[in-house]
Design a protein that fits this description.
Blueprint: H1 5-16, E1 21-23, E2 26-30, H2 35-43, E3 56-59, H3 61-75
Antiparallel strand pairs: 1-2, 2-3
């Protein structure tokens, strides 16, 4: 199936916001999403290498900011 990879990347980055937490070490999220998308997000500099043994990944400052903004853009309810 052909699909717009940029749109999928945007939605997956937005969904990472659902499982993210931020502490003194940065923002982390569970990495239970499609590996090819996570690899693309890593190449864009938004997340740490998803191929690590850790069950979570680290979002860069830009990735965390975009994740929150994209979640609000796509999923916030009006009202």
């Amino acid at each position: 199936m052909n699909y717009d990879q940029e749109k999928v990347d945007e939605i997956v980055l937005a969904l990472l916001y659902l499982t993210s937490t931020t502490d003194q070490f940065g923002t982390r999220a569970w990495k239970g999403l499609d590996w090819s998308v996570l690899d693309r997000l890593h190449k864009k500099g938004y997340i740490s290498d998803p191929q690590s043994k850790s069950p979570t990944l680290t979002l860069s400052a830009e990735g965390a900011r975009l994740s929150r903004e994209l979640f609000q853009k796509h999923f916030a309810s009006e009202g």
